[in-house]
Give the backbone structure.
Amino acid sequence: MNDITTRQDVELLVNRFYDQVIKDDLIGFFFTDIAKIDLSKHLPKMYNFWESILLGNPVYEGNPMRVHFPLNEVTAMEEKHFNRWLQVWEKTVHDNFEGENAETAITRALNIARIMSYKMTNARSSE
């Protein structure tokens, strides 16, 4: 297996991740029922997000945290949900890639999950 080194690698990773996560019994509903994401619009944003993180190309514009707060108000995003997101991500990375950027993808996702879980929990407790 190869490492994540190109935009095409990022797109493959993100596509395979979303193929799994939207069908997941625990968290799939966040994507399909709560956020009701349009994959044709959402996936290019995710490609840019992960390309920025993994390849250092500053192509992502946005604030991912801000987008998740309204979803958290509809249905609480709990630690177990972030843990599952991370499990699916890590499995997708390991099933498709190996190398420094692949490990960075897992480490960064872990950090993102921890921060988002913390902030979503605090947002609910401050209501």
Summary: The chain has one domain: 7-125. The domain at 7-125 is CATH 1.10.490.10 (Globin-like). DSSP finds six helices and no strands in the chain. The two ends are 47 Å apart (CA to CA).
